[in-house]
Amino acid sequence: MSKLIKTVPLVALLVIALAGVYLWQRDDALLVQPLSDINNNNETKSVRLYYYNSALDRDEAGNLMCSRKGLAAVERKIPSTINPIKDTINLLVKGELLNEEKNRGVTTEYPLDGLILKNIVLNNGVLTLSFDDTKNKTVGGACRVGILWFQIEATARQFPEVEKVRFLPEELFQP
Question: 96, 110, 130, 147: which has the fewest Cβ within 10 Å?
Fold first, then answer.
């Protein structure tokens, strides 16, 4: 009987630990729900995707400045989902521009082959976006990577709960 009394708390502790690991993994998975996890009432939400228009990003002499001034918003409707920030970023990095937007000078280098949004975490106004960049497509010249960064950052910051955007791994968007 004494052996049983000593074993029960150990088994209970093991069960609690395993349940904690399961819930931690499940909670992490909930942060990256696919776009198909929409509500069933077909509601949509208007969002802005920020791409680039070099005509908006020139100084007085006509030189390209590679700045946020070149960002050009395009509007899209997305299904109301449990994670509109993630769904909006995923839509941005697909890089699907309409002909009318292209005719206005809006451009993008997205999609980048091998770039995948893995996870998002919003904590106290700081949105951390974790990407896989298996083909190192987010590196390059300072102008290029700055614009890629600005596009995602501006798209994320349209949501009032997002005050700052961080990227992981930190090697992303490096010149």
Answer: 96
Q: How far apart are CA 105 and CA 69, in angstroms?
A: 14
Whether residue 47 contacts residue 88, with contact meaning beta carbons closer than 8 Å, is answered with yes
Give residue-wise pLDDT tens across range 48-79.
999 999 999 999 999 999 999 999 999 999 99
The pLDDT confidence band at residue 42, using thresholds 50, 70 and 90, is confident
Beta pairing partners, 131: 117
Residues 55, 5: Cα–Cα separation, whole Å? 76
Q: What angle do CA 33, 94, 133 make, to 5 degrees?
A: 80
Q: Where are the domains of the chain?
A: 39-168
CB < 8 Å & 24+ apart, contacts of 100-107? 101/51, 101/72, 101/74, 104/53, 104/72, 105/53, 105/54, 105/55, 105/72, 106/51, 106/52, 106/53, 106/72, 106/74, 107/51, 107/52, 107/53, 107/54
Closest-CA residue to 83 (of 149, 147, 39): 39
Biggest CA pair distance of the chain: 89
